[in-house]
Every structure is written in C-alpha cells, then in structure tokens.
Specification:
61 residues, mainly alpha, 3 helices, elongated
Length: 61
Amino acid sequence: MNANDLVESYVTEVAVELPRKLRNDVAFELRTLLKEELQAKADTTGHACGERDEIRVILTI
C-alpha cells in the first residue's frame, strides 16, 4: 500500500462515520493535513516516507 492509498483509506474510514453534510469538507481537510504532514516529514528526513512513517503520522494527528 503506497502513501496515497493509505491516506485515502484512512480518510474514507473517518468520513463514513461523520454526518453526511460534513463528510466532503472534513475529508478534504483531513486529506490535506495528512499529505502536508507526510511532505513535511519527507522534507525533514530528506527522503519519501515509508509505510511505517505514514502510519505514525496518521496515528499521531
């Protein structure tokens, strides 16, 4: 599973638990936040995040 798949899977799981009116906005914000965090981690370490790093980012938000 690559970074995008992992983020999309997580966002989808979270979104289905939300009221329908909020799903799209919250999913968009969450997706953006996760991708920004992954990019920041990649910039800090100098390489793309591995799956373990991606999971850590998702679980610590």
